[in-house]
Hints:
Largest sheet: none
Structural class: mainly alpha
CATH topology of the largest domain: Rna Polymerase Sigma Factor, Chain: A
Number of domains: 2
CATH superfamily of the largest domain: RNA polymerase sigma factor, region 2, helix turn helix motif
Number of strands: 0
Amino acid sequence: MGETEEAIQRFLEGNQEAFEQIVRRWERKVYNLAWRMLGNREDAQDIVQETFFSIFKSLRTLRDPGSFPTWLYQIALNHCRIRYRSRSSDLIPYSPASDKIQDEGALLSDVPASRHHRDSLEDVDLIRKALLGLSEEHRTAIILKEYLGLSLEELAGVMKCPLSTAKSRLYHGLKEVQHNLMRLGIKRK
């Protein structure tokens, strides 16, 4: 039994501190997922809170503690979808002239302002834009596989689809990212 499964068992037996251990173990991954899905740090922080609140209320319904990561990501993705849909009417169409990393000033103030670092931040921003330009299914597949390190089998489980569909979504998403990056000015090396 792994660390998370043990913490779940202790929580189900009444140990409230065990839930805090679960949160500490998984909150960063949920945040990374939400930030990459939504492209907004404040929304990502809200998604973390909403996800763990949902888990706290329904952890007793989880039949197999070994499937916790899949279940967790499904809940987080559902909260991301709800947030995205509620925001979609407020979104401003993409404009290359006005689009910048939201926290660029804060990021740059914490480190020396070298040319290499600024180029790296610009590349990260372009990759973020390229990802946000994908369909939800393709973006989800890439984030789960490339940023969170899930296997293709885990990816299929989280996305509730056959393995072949998960592979297809990942493949087509990566092709779209490549196309979007070329449009945004990053040449393939």
